[in-house]
Amino acid sequence: MTENTQTKAVFLYPRRLAEYVFAPDHPFKPERISRVYDLCRQKGLFSHPSVRVEEVLEPEEGVLERFHTPQYIEMLRRANGGNNLDAAMLSHGIGTMENPVFAGIYDFSVLSATASLRAARLLAGGTLCAFNPGGGFHHAHADRASGFCYINDVVIALEELKRSGKRVAYLDIDAHHGDGVQEAFYQDPEVLTVSLHESGKTLFPWGGFAGERGKGAGFGYNINVPLEPSTDDEVFLLLFSRIALDALTLFDPDVVVGQFGTDTFSTDPLTHLRMTNNGYIEAVAGLHERFPRILALGGGGYNLDNVVRGWTLLWAELAGLKLEEGYGGAMGGVFLGDASIVDSDLRDMRLFTSGPPKESLMEKAEALISEYEKLVRPVLSK
Ligand SMILES: [Zn+2]
């Protein structure tokens, strides 16, 4: 596809995903996808000539086969009716509390992966940024569902970019370790993977420690930055700039694939960090300033309101549409005439950890940074 040369960012919209329900009381709510779309539209973030929305309606045949095993895909297909569960499915992680069988499980999976694959093709074709809010399922393994993830669209997107000849890096700022992606590229020096997440001492998937640095030729190309409970924006941004941005800069990718989960925020019901969307969006902006080509994927986030505001800010950043704080609705030179259109109403109250707990967090952060500088930086500097 030839892109309008003015197009900066494409919002992939697999609208139908929003209609599925994992289970009535399941924390992962696919409706987040349409709610993010609605808020972006309400804020005027699609009405600029440099951006466009691309609906993803048709699932692409063969997309799951790019990463998943035939046996596992067959399990998803068999579970698609929503009411059949057997021991074989359970042995592949399907039918658990976290990954229940639901009606349309296979259709959901294929459409989600299709949207991420399409985003990868756009980036390979020269589009600067693309965002699939219906992707980012970083825990799924080739033959097993895990942590609310049935398929790993992240790996599929990274592989597509790699195959197209792009030098590609992966950055994961979800509160959970991106274990499925780590596993896929653990011995591969051609794909740098960086994950910042709450420590595996206190959170699923119970791994992602700093000592997991890749294997063989891949040593040094897998970076984990475990965050202590109560980590705030300041500590996060310190680690983000000194480790993640530094490593990405040394690696010098053409495209950064980002998993931008919003479950690091203090109000998230499943995690124990104390971030706000201010630290989150400052990190994304810092990344974007250095790397203009970003394929953004969704991910975790279990307070719906947080997810929706966080990803609307994310889209505004990728699209280069800055909503002026405290300034009613002037955007792209057009006055939108709606006093509610200001950035500030999307931002959280700032929140900081202080006193001795903060000092302890800073000490641990400095230790992670010096370890990175001693053991990993030399490999990336070669
Ligand atoms: Zn998460």
What is the CATH homology-level superfamily?
Histone deacetylase domain
Shape: globular
Largest beta sheet: strand ordering:
2-1-3-8-7-4-5-6
Low-confidence stretches: 325-342
Write the H/E string, N to C. Answer: EHEHHHEHEHEEHEHEHEEHH
Which secondary-structure class do the elements indicate?
alpha/beta
- Give Rg in angstroms: 20 Å
| DSSP, total strands | 10
Largest sheet: 8 strands, parallel
- CATH fold-level name: Arginase, Chain A
Under the CATH scheme, the architecture is: 3-Layer(aba) Sandwich
Termini, distance in Å? 37 Å
- Helix count from the secondary structure assignment: 11
Number of domains: 1
List each distinct ligand once: zinc ion
The portion of residues assigned to helices is 25-40%
Ordered list of secondary-structure elements with their pairings:
Blueprint lengths: L8 E5 L18 H11 L8 E5 L14 H10 L7 H4 L14 H20 L4 E4 L20 H11 L4 E5 L6 H7 L5 E8 L23 E6 L5 H19 L3 E5 L17 H14 L3 E4 L6 H16 L10 E2 L2 E2 L19 H21 L1 H5 L1
Parallel strand pairs: 1-2, 1-3, 3-8, 4-5, 4-7, 5-6, 7-8
Antiparallel strand pairs: 9-10
Helix pairs in contact: 1-9, 2-4, 4-5, 7-8, 7-10, 8-9
The structure holds zinc ion.
Zinc ion binds next to loops.
